Hints:
A two-stranded antiparallel ribbon has the order 1-2. The chain has 14 helices and two strands. The protein is an all-alpha fold.
Amino acid sequence: xxxxxxxxxxxxxxxxxxxxxxxxxxxxxxxxxxxxxxxxxxxxxxxxxxxxxxxxxxxxxxxxxxxxxxxxxxxxxxxxxxxxxxxxxxxxxxxxxxxxxxxxxxxxxxxxxxxxxxxxxxxxxxxxxxxxxxxxxxxxxxxxxxxxxxxxxxxxxxxxxxxxxxxxxxxxxxxxxxxxxxxxxxxxxxxxxxxxxxxxxxxxxxxxxxxxxxxxxxxxxxxxxxxxxxxxxxxxxxxxxxxxxxxxxxxxxxxxxxxxxxxxxxxxxxxxxxxxxxxxxxxxxxxxxxxxxxxxxxxxxxxxxxx
Length: 307
């Protein structure tokens, strides 16, 4: 039972967020470079340990409030099935292990993991209670993940990709708060920062960042798509200047818009308090993500283009 509770408070389902570390590997054209791929895989596991440590700390700090939450009250610490001392011991062990492992991979990666820890500790000890700031910190966590993946393989990511990452991170973070407010209503005892939000305000955030997300991705595909090399695409370009041979990633834009629209509809249904679960459960969202990834891999690595 102890092992099961330790696994529960580590929240392995949240490790799906750390897949963002592979973004730089994919978009820099090195996905099939075995050495770089394994480097990112190891970094992924380092981040898994680091995120689990911060989740455990947050559960210890929030145990009293979690008991008032309709879902979080079933967490092992809030339910009284696991002592805070044991939980903190595991958090310290995971933190130290992740920092040592990060330094072994890259000193810059170590500094990024350390920065992540500082932000999350500050979040747990009070910043999570300040509206707007809480959303910014959640979004920053996503950004650190993506750029950790870039630093450890020394890859360049364009400014358009940076804007896309920032926009998506803010979209997910504001959506999480919007769904939580929808689920809890005025029961702000479980989340103090919700006192500073209204449904209308969070709706505007979700709409604003959702628009920014697909627009920044569209600009990225417009300016950063690889050049085509297969004769079929070259023939199309000869037929008409309307067809282009240097903007192939733009075919992913409709799928991107559908995914954002689907996620936004789930937000307004109050189903995105745990976005990592939706990526595993909602069929339409999962399908759009699989199609999007397949199209991106096809364009970048399918032999139709040259980066």
